[in-house]
Amino acid sequence: MKLTPLDIQQHQFAKKSNRYDAPEVDSFLDMVRRDYEESLRINEELKEQNRKLDAQLSELRANERVLKDAIISTQKVSDEIKKNAEKEAEVIIAEAQLKAEKIIDNGRREVETLHSDIMELKRQRVQFEATLRATLEGHEKLLEATSDRIKEEDAEAAKVKVLPANR
Questions:
Q1: Count of other CB atoms within 10 angstroms of residue 25
Q2: What is the pLDDT of residues 83-107, one digit of tens each?
Q3: Which residues, 6 or more positions from 25, have their beta carbon under 8 angstroms from its beta carbon?
Q4: Which residue has the higher pLDDT, 101 or 19?
Q5: How many CB atoms lie within 10 A of CB 5?
Q6: Where are the domains of the chain?
Q7: What is this structure's pTM?
Q8: How far apart are CA 167 and CA 156, in angstroms?
Q9: What angle do CA 29, 30, 32 make, to 5 degrees?
Q10: What confidence score (pLDDT) does residue 157 get?
Q11: In this structure, are residues 5 and 30 in contact, taking their beta carbons and an 8 Å threshold?
Q12: Helix intervals (H) in the chain
């Protein structure tokens, strides 16, 4: 049976001769009732505090779930950003490699063109030198022929005597 402070206060003891002093028992019962009332009040306060703490705990657990979900979501987003950054880096590297290959190919073509130009210039130089030698040899033969003719003319002129003029 659950006792209330009122039950304690209204409880009557059977009186037997010289056994209990009624005012003392009543005084004691009042004291028990007050202590019991205080215990019940404290118990109710504790129950209320427990309800509040349970509500807070539920709220904290809900917040914890939200935070865990947010952390997981953030991690997923972070992983996705990292993957996208890696893919973008791969694309940039591939583009840079392609550009580098084009630059190298252009450089090779330029070197080949320069090499061809150098070979053509060497061929032209050899041809020019051959033409110049031929021209020089032709002029030398012409000079020699002219020199031989002048020598012959000088030899003939030496045979001719010039007569002094009468004056």
A1: 14
A2: 999 999 999 999 999 999 999 999 9
A3: 13
A4: 101
A5: 19
A6: 5-156
A7: 0.45
A8: 27
A9: 60
A10: 77
A11: no
A12: 5-10, 22-159
Q: CA 26 to CA 95: how far, in whole Å?
A: 100
20, 76, 130, 132, 140 from 136: Cα distances, Å:
164, 87, 10, 6, 6
70 has a pLDDT exceeding 90: yes
Dihedral sign, CA of 69, 72, 73, 74? positive
Which token pair is 40? Answer: 């019940």
Q: Burial letters for 118-149: b for 16+ Cβ neighbours within 10 Å, e otherwise? A: eeeeeeeeeeeeeeeeeeeeeeeeeeeeeeee
pLDDT at 54 over 60: yes
Q: How confident is the model at residue 162 (pLDDT cuts 50, 70, 90)?
A: low
Determine the average pLDDT of the residues in 99-118. Answer: 97
Query: At a CB cut-off of 8 Å and minimum separation 6, what does 13 contact?
Result: 20, 22, 25
Q: How far is CA 85 from CA 70, 95, 140, in A?
A: 22, 15, 79
Give the pLDDT of residue 60.
97
